[in-house]
Amino acid sequence: MKNTKNTKNTKHPRSNIPALPALLALILIAGLAIIAAHPALAAGATSSGVSTGPAELNITRATATLNTAIAEGNWLRAAAYAELITQNDENAPANIWCKWGYSLRKMGRYDEALAMVTIAIEKDPDNAASHLNRGYTYLALGQYRNARMDAEETLRLERAGKTDITSDCAIANTGATAYNIIALGLLGEGDPKNALVAAGTALVLGPDNVHYLNTRGVALTQLGKYSDAVMVLTQATELQDEYISPYPDAIPPEENLKTAQRLYDENKAPDTLIIIAAVAILAIGAGAIFLQRRK
To answer: Of the candidates 288, 211, 283, which has an alpha carbon nearest to the alpha carbon of residue 243?
Structure first.
């Protein structure tokens, strides 16, 4: 008997695997997306966008990206690039650590910011910008005495001629900023009288500065001089200079003005009492004149 095989009705299953070129294209696109999203991977990529493995970081380019991110207020990106630079350059200068701490402070990550800017000061104790940076960080942490000490160290460096105004981490008018930090520290410690003096000195060095006016207005409010506080804080809100909060928890002049205005309204004498007092004074004066004439 012959064995017969029915080959006509045999069906081969169709493959469910996608075409190889399409799959490779998807993998390539996913890889490029990951590289673009992570600065460390992007730093090791070739100009075509395809990673060639570990590569030395271009510190100059990374620093430029860091500075651009700070100028744009992109604190997360700035912090990422500062970290990347310090990981790849064991001799990263103090200003990189200073900017890292600054970016972290702007994001409200105060403990981390304090650690980074302290490293900056250890690397360059004469860097006034780092002391001011740490001073604001101490204010955000409620460590007012430490904030004042950093500000006072800045003033000492300035008197000694050691402040580097050409540094790309330098702060304009370091003396005025230092006095403002001192004033804010004194306010935190419950000493508005001396805070008012320090804020006044800051305004002498930096007139019409929205931050210094804001500090002066708070000092006047704490002293109970609500009318003066309203006037100063109104001036601060009307300035063209934008108020840039030194840290997320700082209170802007608009909010301080509302507080001063509310306290002024609550404590001012009612209009009727003012009128009665004025009439009484006039009556007493008229009576005194009348008695004088009768003599």
So the answer is: 211
For the chain, the residue count is: 295
| Rounded Cα distance, 151 and 179, in Å | 7
Give per-residue burial for 84-117: e unless 16+ CB within 10 Å, then b. Answer: bbbeeeeebbbbbbbbbbbbbbbeebbebbbebb
- DSSP class of residue 1 equals -
- List, by residue range, all CATH 1.25.40.10 domains of the chain: 57-171, 192-288
DSSP letters, 190-248, are T-HHHHHHHHHHHHHHSTT-HHHHHHHHHHHHHTT-HHHHHHHHHHHHHSSSPP--SST
167 has a pLDDT exceeding 60: no
User: Is the confidence at residue 54, as pLDDT, over 60?
Assistant: no
Whether the CB-CB separation of 242 and 207 falls below 8 Å is answered with: no
**Above pLDDT 90, what percent of the chain?**
64
Which superfamily is assigned to 192-288 in CATH?
Tetratricopeptide repeat domain (1.25.40.10)
d(CA 230, CA 233): 5
Which DSSP category does 172 fall into?
S
pLDDT of residue 61: 95
Q: How many Å apart are CA 151 and CA 86, to the nearest integer? A: 26
Q: Are 170 and 129 in contact (CB under 8 A)?
A: yes
Cα 169 versus chain centre, distance: 14
Instruction: Compute the radius of gyration of the chain from its Cα atoms.
Output: 33
What is the dotted CATH code of the domain comprising 57-171?
Answer: 1.25.40.10
- If you search the block for the tokens 């109104």, which residue do you land on? 234
